[in-house]
Amino acid sequence: MNKILWSALxxxxxxxxxxxxxxxxxxxxxxxxxxxxxVTAPAKAAGSGAETTALDGKGxxxxxxxxxxxxxxxxxPASPLSSRSVxxxxxxxxxxxxxxGMLEAHAGYLMSKRDARVTLxxxxxxxxxxxxxxxxxxxxxxxxxxxxxxxxxxxAQIEAVSFGEEKPRKEGDTEEAYAENRRxxxxxxxx
Length: 191
Hints:
Layout: H1 2-16, E1 26-28, H2 34-45, E2 52-54, E3 85-87, H3 100-112, E4 118-123, H4 130-150, E5 158-164, H5 175-181, E6 183-188
């Protein structure tokens, strides 16, 4: 019985570690504008059968989905690229599933802009020693780095650093302040 359980656990673990290299994210075009039709024409010509376009780092700028926003997609409040923080539970560094969409959006942007660079800044609340919090902040930044590289981002585009407890977002010794400070921030080099 124990051997069966271990083999099933191993199989599930290996299945979860599969890669998606070569897969491109697509966005369905439902705006119907002439400019968008010109972009989707190659997809139709290729016989894909669906009106989709590869995510080219511009997101869906100018479409009905984002209210016509045409600026930098990272600054569009309706875009997942505007979210820049991954929050962690106390004394933990595992990335929660709720941040998958945000990280996929950043990965798509980084893969479309190979010259873009990000720094992942790991942070911790003030509980624990300074050394411990620096190490925990580094583990948090590295966890986000690993999530982005699994999604296809080049490791050369990412730098992971730790600030430990040195850069709190919210001062105080309440659980609310602690939760706000347990994070990893995505900071683009050109901003």
